[in-house]
Amino acid sequence: MEHLSFLLHFLLSLALNHASFATANNDQFLYSGFSSNDLTLDGAATVTPDGVLQLTNGTVHLKGHAFYPTPWQFRKSPNEVVHSFSITFVFGMVPVYSDQCTDGMTFLISPSKDFSGAQTSQYLGLLNKTADGKSSNHIFAVELDSSQNTEFKDINDNHVGININSLTSVKAQPAGFYDDKNGVFNNLFLISRKEMQVWVDYDAENTRISVTMAPLKVAKPLRPLVSDIYNLSTVLQDPSYIGFSASTGPIDSLYCVLGWSLGINRPAPAIDVSKLPRLPRIGTRRQSKVLEIVLPIASGTFIFLVGTAIILLVRRRMKFAELHEDWEDDYGPHRFSYKDLYDATEGFHYKNVLGHGGFGKVYKGVLPVSKLEVAVKRVSHESKQGIKEFIAEIVSIGRLRHRNIVQLLGYCRRRGELLLVYDYMSNGSLDKYLYSDEGKDTLEWFQRFEIIKGVASGLFYLHERWEKVVIHRDIKASNVLLDNEMNGRLGDFGLARLYDHGTDPQTTRVVGTMGYFAPELARTGKATPLTDVYAFGIFIVEVTCGRRPIDNLVEDSSEILIDWVVEHWHRGSLIDTLDRRIQGNYDADEVCLVLKLGLLCAHPFSNARPSMRQVMQYLDGERPLPELMPTNLSYSMLATMHNEGFSQYTSLAFTGGSNAMTSSFSSGR
Ligand SMILES: Nc1ncnc2c1ncn2[C@@H]1O[C@H](COP(=O)(O)OP(=O)(O)O)[C@@H](O)[C@H]1O
Ligand SMILES: *[C@@H]1O[C@H](CO)[C@@H](O)[C@H](O)[C@H]1NC(C)=O
Ligand SMILES: *[C@@H]1O[C@H](CO)[C@@H](O)[C@H](O)[C@H]1NC(C)=O
Ligand SMILES: *[C@@H]1O[C@H](CO)[C@@H](O)[C@H](O)[C@H]1NC(C)=O
C-alpha cells in the first residue's frame, strides 16, 4: 500500500514537473527547462508551462530579467582572486510578426538583482545611459545582440560580445562557430528561431574569458568565437548574482532560455539537449499541421507523390506570389518581379543586409540580367487603404532624376509587403562617417561642404524644380547616402507618406525623426517645404559639428545641438563648434556661413526661414546671408514662447523609442 501511494506521488510529481529538470549544489547547478520557482524573475520575464524562460513577452520596448535566486561566491575568501568558472546555456530568439528582432539579450554577473534603473532597447535591460561604462557597476556580461547600435560601436546586427560594465563590448564577433575539422568559420543567425548553445568560460590562471557558441546538436567547438584576456578579479564583487537580461526595441521579439548550467572551479554540467523544452512556435509561417500528420500516414506512394508535387507547386507559387491589380498596368516598366528580387538578394539572405531603418531591412542585390547593383528595401504594410495612392506616388517619384537623389528604380508588391528598389550607394549612409570614432574615417571639411551643397541642391529640386512640390519629410544624416564619388544623395523620400495614407485618418501622426522636427509640425501635423528646410538646417549644423541633434535622453538643454550652437554664437565663439576631428584643414568663412545658415533654416519661426532657392544662393555665395542678431535666448525657449503647441511637441517627440517614426510604426500594428 505504502509503495503504491509512493508510486502515485512519484508519478504525480513527475507529471507536474516534467517541464523542469534541475539539480544544484554549492559549486554547480543544472537546469534543463525551468519552473517559475527556480528563478527570480522581473519585468516581462515569465516561465511558460512547457518550461521555457521567456525574458521578453513579445511586446515592444520592454525588458525582463531572470536570476538564480541566491548569489554565488566567486572567491574563496575576500583577498583571493576570482575562481575559474564555466557557464553554458541554450537560448533562442523568436521574431513575433516580422523576420526581425530588436534588440538583444545578455548573460550577466552582477552584485545586484535590481535592474529597475536599466533601460530597454539598445541598453538590453542591462544598464542605462548614465551608468554605462562605470566601473562601479561590477558587471560582466556576454551580449547576444540582434541589432546594430553605432553608439556602442556594434559591428553588425548579429553579434556576440564580451562586455565589462558597459554596452560597448571589449571584444565582439559576428555570431558563428569554427568547425573543429577544417577550421572554417560558419555563420550563425541569432534570430533564426533555432536553439543555440553558448559556453562562457573564465580561466583564472590566465584571466582569459572565452565565449563559444554552436547550433544545438553540435558539440562545443574547440576554438572559441570570442576570447579576451581580462582580469575579472578587478570587476566582480562577492557575492554576485548570475542571470539573464533582455530587452525589446521597436519590434516584437521573444528572447528565450531553455537550459542553463554553472560550474565554479569545474566544468559546467553538460546540458542534456533531449530534455529541453521546445522554443515557442509563433510567427512561423509553416504548412498546416494536417499536412504534417497526414502525409506520413498516407501509405500509397502515388498519393504521396501527388501530394508532394502539389505542395511543391503551391509553395513555389506562394513563395513568389505577388499582388497585382489592373490599375498598376499603367506603371508596367517600374514593376519588378518578386522572383528577380529574390534571386538578386540570394533569397534575402542576411549576409546581404545593408542596414535597417524604421521601415524595414535594406538588402544589397545584383539584378539577374543587367547585373546592376541595387538596394532593395522591404517595407511591411498592413493596411490596404491608400496603397494605390502611395504606389502612384512612389512611381511618379521614380521619375525624379537628379544627381543628389538616390534613384528609385521600381517596386514590387506582395501581400503585406512592398519592395522598393534603389540604386546601390557604395559608400553607405553619411551618419556612419560622422559618428565613427576612428579618425581615419572622418570626412574633411571640403567633403562635408560638398555634401551639404549636394543635399541642398537635391532638396531644391524636390521643392521647386520638379513638376510638383515633393516634400521629403525625413531629412537626416542617415537618409543621406554617399555614392562612389562621395556625392551626398537624398534617399527615402516619400516613404513617410505611407503613414499618412495607410493609417487611420483620425489619428494624425507626425512622421519624422526626433531632433529634426520643426516646432510647428507637431502643432499642425502638416509637413511643408519649410518643415523640410528646418530639418535641413539641423542637418547642416549636425554635419558641421559632428554631433547628433539631440543626445538620447535629454536632461539638460546643452544636449540640444542647436541651442549649444546658438550659445556659442552669442558668445562670439561660433567656430569652436566645428567638429574637432577636422584638423586645421578648413575655411573658417565657409564654416561660419554654414553654421549661420543652419541657424537661419532651423529658426523656430517658420517665416524667418529661407526657401531652398535662397539657401542655394547663400551657399554659392551669390547672395550675402542676411544679418541675424545673435540671440541670448535658446531656440527651444523661443519656440516655447512663440508656440502654445510646444508642450505637445516635446511629449510627441519623446515618446517611446529613439525616434518618433519607429514608435508610431510599432503602435500602428
Ligand atoms: N540605396 C542604398 N544603397 C546602399 N545602402 C543603402 C541604400 N539605402 C539604404 N542603405 C543602407 O541601409 C540603411 C537603412 O536604410 P533606411 O531604411 O533608409 O534607414 P532609415 O529608415 O534609418 O532612414 C542605411 O543606413 C544604409 O546604410
Ligand atoms: C508583457 O509584460 C508587460 C510588463 O510586465 C505587461 O504589462 C504586458 O501586459 C505583457 N504583455 C503580454 C502580451 O503578456
Ligand atoms: C541608472 O542605473 C543606475 C544603476 O542601476 C541607477 O542607480 C540609476 O538610478 C539609473 N538612472 C536612471 C536615470 O534611471
Ligand atoms: C588580477 O587582479 C587581482 C586583484 O587586483 C590581482 O590580485 C591579481 O594578481 C590579478 N591577476 C593577474 C593574473 O594579473
TrEMBL record:
Cellular compartment(s) = Cell membrane
At which positions is ATP bound?
Answer: 377
Q: Name where it mostly resides.
A: membrane
Query: One MF term in GO for this entry?
Result: carbohydrate binding
Would you indicate the residue range of the signal peptide?
1-22
Q: Which residue intervals define the domain Protein kinase in the entry?
A: 348-628
| Membrane-crossing segments per the record | 293-314
Membrane topology of this protein: Single-pass type I membrane protein
Upper taxonomic classification of the species? Eukaryota, Viridiplantae, Streptophyta, Embryophyta, Tracheophyta
Q: Which GO terms describe its cellular component?
A: plasma membrane
Does the record's keyword annotation contain rRNA processing?
Answer: no
Pfam families on file: Lectin_legB, Pkinase
The family classification in the record reads:
In the N-terminal section; belongs to the leguminous lectin family.
Q: Which InterPro entries match?
A: ConA-like_dom_sf (IPR013320), Kinase-like_dom_sf (IPR011009), L-type_Lectin-RKs (IPR050528), Legume_lectin_dom (IPR001220), Prot_kinase_dom (IPR000719), Protein_kinase_ATP_BS (IPR017441), Ser/Thr_kinase_AS (IPR008271)
Kindly list the biological process annotations in GO that this record carries: negative regulation of response to salt stress
Q: EC?
A: 2.7.11.1
Q: Which reaction does it catalyse?
A: L-seryl-[protein] + ATP = O-phospho-L-seryl-[protein] + ADP + H(+); L-threonyl-[protein] + ATP = O-phospho-L-threonyl-[protein] + ADP + H(+)
**What is the protein's given name?**
non-specific serine/threonine protein kinase
Q: Report which superkingdom the organism of origin falls in.
A: Eukaryota
> Is the Membrane keyword given for this protein?
yes
**SMART domains named among the record's database cross-references:** S_TKc
Keywords of this entry? ATP-binding, Cell membrane, Glycoprotein, Kinase, Lectin, Membrane, Nucleotide-binding, Receptor, Serine/threonine-protein kinase, Signal, Transferase, Transmembrane, Transmembrane helix
